[in-house]
């Protein structure tokens, strides 16, 4: 296998810049989503009893996001190695790696799975549960911001040749081509 391109978003753009852009994307997403949903629900009061569950889900959202990346790999019977750590002694962090190279299609599905499995149901739930729409929209907006890096990865994967394989690494990924 020959390396066609090596991609490390944090090295290319910088971690602080990526976090700032993700934050801006979250605010923009909330602004764009809140207006039509609030028009649909009118002056529906928010149920304040949902604040504590909201904080709990918000705390575990990064871990749930990572699990949603892993879920398609498990469904497709791909070997996945999990690493569970605690950051600052209380924040759970899950990272994963695959034992083998993934095809372009599988990598694209894996990168987009959290958006399909968390953001879309969050937006749908904001329409279905009017008392809690604010909480669902905030969670969906934060998740859209978290997924910004995934969207960048998806753009790189999309531009890769059809026969490419993707090798996930801790600091990014490599796009590989079979040697001819």
TrEMBL record:
Organism: Virgibacillus xinjiangensis
Keyword Transmembrane helix found: yes
The entry's keywords: Membrane, Transmembrane, Transmembrane helix
InterPro entries, A to Z: DUF3267
Protein known as: DUF3267 domain-containing protein
Membrane-crossing residue ranges in chain numbering: 20-39, 51-76, 106-127, 133-153
Pfam families with a match to the protein in the record: DUF3267
Domain of life: Bacteria
């Amino acid at each position: 296998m020959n390396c066609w391109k090596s991609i490390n978003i944090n090295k290319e753009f910088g971690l602080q810049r990526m976090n700032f852009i993700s934050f801006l994307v979250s605010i923009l997403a909330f602004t764009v989503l809140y207006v039509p949903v609030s028009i649909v629900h009118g002056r529906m009061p928010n149920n304040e009893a949902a604040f504590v569950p909201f904080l709990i889900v918000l705390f575990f959202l990064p871990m749930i996001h990572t699990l949603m990346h892993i879920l398609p790999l498990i469904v497709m019977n791909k070997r996945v190695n999990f690493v569970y750590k605690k950051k600052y002694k209380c924040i759970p962090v899950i990272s994963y790696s695959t034992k083998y190279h993934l095809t372009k299609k599988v990598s694209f599905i894996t990168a987009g799975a959290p958006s399909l499995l968390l953001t879309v149901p969050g937006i749908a739930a904001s329409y279905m549960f009017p008392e809690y729409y604010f909480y669902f929209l905030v969670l969906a907006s934060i998740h859209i911001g978290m997924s910004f890096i995934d969207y960048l990865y998806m753009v790189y994967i999309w531009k890769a040749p059809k026969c490419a394989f993707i090798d996930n690494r801790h600091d990014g990924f490599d796009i590989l081509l079979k040697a001819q």
